[in-house]
Structure formats: C-alpha cells, structure tokens
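Q: Give me the 3D complex with adenosine-5'-triphosphate.
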Amino acid sequence: MSWKRTFNPLGNNLHSHTSGNDNKRMVCQLSLCGGLKCHDGVHLKKSRGAYIEMSIFSVGNRVSVRGELDAADCSRLLAAMHNEVHVKKYQDIELDFSDCTKAYPAEMVAVCVKCQQLWKEGVDIHLSLPTERKMSKLFLNTNWAHLIDIRQFEPSRYRGYTHAPALRFSSGKEQYEAINKILEILLAALLKLKREDLRIIEWALNEITDNVINHSQSPIGGLVQVTNHRQQSQIQFVVADAGIGIPGSLRPARPDIRNDQEALDAAIREGVTRDNAVGQGNGLYGTWQISKKSFGRFRLLSGYASLESSERDGLRIQKRDIPLSGTLVSCRIGYAADLALEDALIFSGKRHVPTDYIETHFEAREDGSIVFDLSQESEGFGSRAAGDPVRRKLHNVIRMSDADRVIIDLDKVLLVSSSYADEVFGKLFIELGPLEFSRRIDIQNVDPLVQALIDKAILQRMRQ
Ligand SMILES: Nc1ncnc2c1ncn2[C@@H]1O[C@H](COP(=O)(O)OP(=O)(O)OP(=O)(O)O)[C@@H](O)[C@H]1O
Ligand SMILES: [Mg+2]
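A: Here is the predicted complex, encoded as structure tokens.
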C-alpha cells in the first residue's frame, strides 16, 4: 500500500492511497490529521508508535468524534469545524459525538466556544450526543450539550458535586453572576475546602474571567466551567473566549515580543500588562503561582502557542501547528489540607489578601451574627436532594465565617418534609455536635409546624 498526504492549513487534509489488494484508489477527505493511514474505509492515526482508529473525521457536513477527545484531536476538531463553514461553506453542520467515549473540560469548553461563535455567525449546529449513558449525562450536566446545540438542549440544571456547569458571560454583571453561582455550588458541594483556599480560587476565577472582559474583544464573551476532581482534591477551572488572543493583545504594546510563544511566556510574568492604565499584570502571574504552590497544573493556549506548567514537567512552551483563535486558560488548584495557598499571592513583595464571597455575602451584623435566609438558599423543601446542598453550604458558612452566631431565618418557609428537616437540621446537628450547634445556631421566624418537624428530626438523630 502506498499513501501520501497533502496539507492545507485551513483544516482540510487530503489523503490518497492505492490498496495493493484490490488496486482500488481511495481518497479520504479528513481534517488535519497527523500520521494518517486509511484502510478499508477505516481512518487510522498514529499514536505512540502504533496506528489506532482516527478520532476525528468529516463526511459532508458531518464531523464525527470517535473514542477519546484528547488535546491534539480537539485542535483537529476545531479546524474541521472551521473548514466545514469557511471552506466548504456549509451553513448547518452536524457534530456527531455518538462514538465519543471520553472528553475533558478544557477541550470541551474550547469546542463550546467555537460553537457559540458559529451560532453567532448564523450557522446551525446539530449535536448527536454520545450513545454511552455516562457520557451523554456528562454532556447534559456540564451544559456542553446546550452550548453546542442551543436549539435542541435546555441549559443544565445540574446541582451535583462534580461540576459547576459551563456558563457564558459577556459583561461585568454576567461575570459577577457566573462567579457567584460557581462559588455557591462549591460551597454547597465541598466540605474539605478551607476558607483561604476558597478565597484564592475565587480570586483566580475573578482575574481570569476579568481578562476576557478587559482584553479579549471576544464577540461571544467567555465561558467558564469548574470541575471538582475529588480523588486528587483539586479544583479545575477553565475559561475560554473567542477573541484576539494573548499575542494579539500584548504584542502591539510590546514590540520586542517576536512570536506567540514569547507572548505567552511574557503574559504570565509579574507586572506584564498590555496597558498599565488598565491592569497591573497580576492576574495570570498570580493564577500560575497558585497552581504551582498547590501542586496543580496550569495551561494557557492562544494563537500558535501553548504553555503548560506542572510540578512534574516544569514550564513548557510550545509552538502549535493549528492556531487557537482566542484564549483558553485551564488551571488546577490543589486543596489538600497541608497547603498554605495564602502565600501564593505576593505582588511587588507584598502579600495580597483578597476579599471573598463569605465576607461579601455573609457580612456580620453589629451584634456579630450573620443571617442565612433559608427561603433564598433552598430550591425546594420537600426532599433530601433539596436539603443536602443547603446543609453543606450552611456547614461551610458556619465553619468559615468569623461570626459568633448564624441566624437561620425560616420566614416564608411554610412547610418542610421530614426528610428535608432531617437532611438539613438533623444531620447538621450531628456534624456540629450538640454544643456547637446550640452555641452557633439560632433558628428564627419559624412556623410552629415546621419547628415541630425540625425538633423531631433532631431528637431522632440524638437517639441514634
Ligand atoms: N483573555 C485574554 N485575551 C486577550 N489577551 C489577554 C487575555 N488574558 C490576558 N491577556 C493579555 O495578557 C496580559 C497579562 O494579563 P494579566 O491578567 O496577567 O494582567 P492584566 O490583566 O493586564 O492586569 P491585572 O490582571 O493585574 O488586572 C494582559 O494585559 C493582556 O494583554
Ligand atoms: Mg488580568
């Protein structure tokens, strides 16, 4: 068998080969695939010295993803989508993930950004969900399905412990709301997190999303997604936009920067900013430092360059063959008990202590107490599922706040189920212990019937 490859930087590789067996000439039209080989209609790519089935291929207006969508395949997928619309001129494309068996937040957020951009340009996108049940649930829960195919899929209403679904923001107000939503989800999910860690994560999330608003000129704003990797005790956040990219923003102000790799290298250094009147050059530097201090991982993709930093591999900056239009930041932050993340934010030699969600949302009153309004905090009062995130959040607020007393205000709560009462109050009583529960908590404005149910739940737990 002989085969040859021609390369077209717009994302269209033509591979042709003649098969020795039947002498039939096959031409496969594929998107940017390295080391490709074709056999009996199966598309193969070279991976770790062996040929494995190709993960990305396009036929007509359909781009299919097969197997695991890794970083390299993601670039090919983005190029293939670009090719469908800007070279083949399709106004509707189909993204077929039915055979996709694994996908990761950074790659998928990049795909979602591309889809949002294409929707804005008037292109219709149809998504076929993965057929594997776990994978299709992942697409729905993380909001990827909605962001890819806004017509077919509703926004995610997922309230679990693994993801804060990907959210889009395009103004300062939307950015603020998105970060608040994410912090609420983290507070309602994680019990191992220290206040210092949450504060540092909040700072980094604010900085990186702020960069989208301040520098990117992205026509669709940005996307932000947070994932909790429980086993590694790491929080990962991904922020991506479809804007001018870091080289596009930084190079006009810094003519000494010769290429995209140098631009990314410069952007993560302390004090490097495109404009001193706009920023101080702390955001990327501080976020990178946090990931380093916590033995996490930091990735930056923009233009023709990628930057990666981890404890194991150090700092690596590489040239990319396929450009990423816009910017993608992926940061993993470890929150294991023995890390002192507060030391990560040192600017001009001074330690920076940012304000945090607890401070701004649970401000202590003059008498030293804070108020937790249950009717605002709960999405329902009928089930354990509704009560569980509320208890976690309450527990975190009690644990993290400096306030002497936490007032749980039950005004407007007219009825709760016994299981809800147990999930919130019974379990919290056990978690805090009787003395701490009565020392820190005041339940106010409670309806007599609701009070009876709460009393019963606590008494039952005491008897166990
Ligand atoms: N999403 C983005 N799109 C385009 N350019 C970006 C983006 N994020 C960062 N940059 C570029 O990288 C530079 C450094 O970013 P960094 O967040 O470290 O500092 P800053 O935003 O300028 O200042 P500060 O973060 O202190 O407010 C920015 O000035 C900008 O030129
Ligand atoms: Mg910044």
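A quick observation: The chain is about 35% helix and 30% strand.
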